[in-house]
Amino acid sequence: MPHSPAGDGEHHDLVLQPRNVQFDWNALPMHWIPGEPMATHVINVLHLLLPEGERWFVRTFKEALPLIRDERLREEVLGFVGQEAIHAEAHQGVLDHLLAKGLDPRPYTRQAEYLFQRVLGEHPELTGTAARENLIERVAVIAAIEHFTAFLGDWVLNADGLDRAGVDPVMLDLLRWHGAEEVEHRSVAFDLLRHLDPGYARRIRAMAITGPVLVQLWVRGVRFLMANDPTLRPGAARPSWRAYTAASGRGLLPHLGRAARSAARYLRRDYHPTQEGSTRQAVAYLGSSPAARAAAH
Amino acid sequence: MSPEPTPLPPPPDLYGRGRDDRFMRFLDRATRLYLPVSTRRNRYGRRGPLPLTPARLQVVVAARTVEAEDVVSLELRPAAPGGGPLPGWQPGAHLDVDLPSGLRRQYSLNGDPADRGSYRIAVRRIDGGAGGSLEVHQDLAVGSGLTVSHPRNAFPFAADPAVLLIAGGIGITPLLPMAREAARRGLDWRLVHTGRSRASMPFAAELAALDPDGSRVVFRPDDEHGGPADAAELLGHAPAPGAAVYVCGPAPMLDAVRAAFDESPARALHFERFSAAPVKDGRPFTLRLRRSGVTLAVPADRSALDVLRDHDPATPYSCRQGFCGVCRRSVTAGTVEHRDRRLSDQERAEGQMLVCVSRAPEGECLELDG
User: Fold this and answer.
1) For strand B268-271 and strand B295-298, is the pairing parallel, antiparallel, or unpaired?
2) Which PANTHER family does the entry mention (chain A) (predicted)?
């Protein structure tokens, strides 16, 4: 697989391995960014979407294995699926905690199941070539999503605002461990897509659909969580774009303009994920992450 | 045209309004319009079969050097004369080396990443080991051909501002290039090299050359200090609080450093992670694939996954330690000896199995669905 040239000494031959992390949520407060219910819930949407979403990544990539003709790429895909499988379970733990705390996530997660199992799942009515092309289309959607997860991973590794705000340390470790692995494996889905379909059209149309749908899923998720948060007075705390911008100004959430510019870079013909984020920084964090260190064998 | 599938109703609205969720319904309908458009053209097939790209390189042993007692280094060059530069690598990278006997061993690259004409590995002879090191010492001579993988890195170096490198014996091999990079980048670095005796510790001259004023590299042979170093002493060599520690050496040293790490002022700990442990207490059994009827023998010292991969290279797996669950298969007949850390009792009762670690009693035949 031709890997794009990376920066000075940037790693591009990492052996991707899942880390068997465990998190204890017993002490997690409802608003784990203290005094910031909206910012907390914006990030909580990750926990709503990721367990189902990442299980779908795993199913889709397992399905794609027989199409891969490059042994190194296959190794990377296998490392990727293991990491994604562990991510899904780690976020599932937070959902279970939310339920125990009186915020029932199930109306939303039922929709996530429908979306990832039904709408984006295997379509048995497709056979032969059409089934294969649909599989590659799903890989293209995953490559587009992985662009955002790498963007978010890079953001959270650098989000000093979260440290200043006194975020719950276990949650911060979950987000940064996950973010670091997203940065670590950020090229895999894109390289797989290029291997299966090197064309530009599929990459672009997948991003054109994925970007807006993700934004909409996020907005719905924040509204849902705020409306169902038992510690907030009904109607008192409504999410707003103004509040988002204020929180991103304090470094608690990613800057919307940067997210939009990042999405635009994905559309460039010479885009490659190695141009975004720093593997070196991800590796450095994984050495210091309490969960990743405890998990290493 | 393919038959229209039975539509599954979208889930209810998020707020208990008692109707289907409109956004979900919209996504489902839009997908139904999009599917025929996006799958009409055979974009994968029109390129013809993709060439198989193997991840292996052919090399020859170009030089063989005794570096210390029982340690030789091999310089590997491309087998084809004039074969272009070798794939690049970074400190911490290793090669999978296929030895002539069929054994596959991983050896860290310890040369200079800037040298794209050759790789260098070093091997300590272990009498009574599984045989790989003896084969390197006894059977590989200048001119021997080998098949190796592309460099892969399971021990990446993050070039942190303050770095402590802890090497036990032959564990110096991945750390030597890290020390070289640390020196090149002007990092605040220290390296402690432990070993039985000075004569057993390779690359002392190369390390000394990286440390002209003798302030960064500490040689600590056990025989001059009355025994092995304890972890607190090793970690005490860190150049500054908050240093990142990279450690490579025998398992007891690694375990001791890990156990002492939280009490030390260091901030990050890195060591090479190996994914598959050797099979323990395995008995031979067989696998039958229900759909194809193929029968595969699983020997005592190999996993069911290894055997399935030989049969089909596209077999899914990932951690090879029984925790990620990617390799799960359905068992339709036979008794499973579960060794994983992932499946629930219910999943086991349903016949699921993680083939990377779980096995069967001696002589059992497990039938796998698919």
Assistant:
1) unpaired
2) METAL-DEPENDENT HYDROLASE
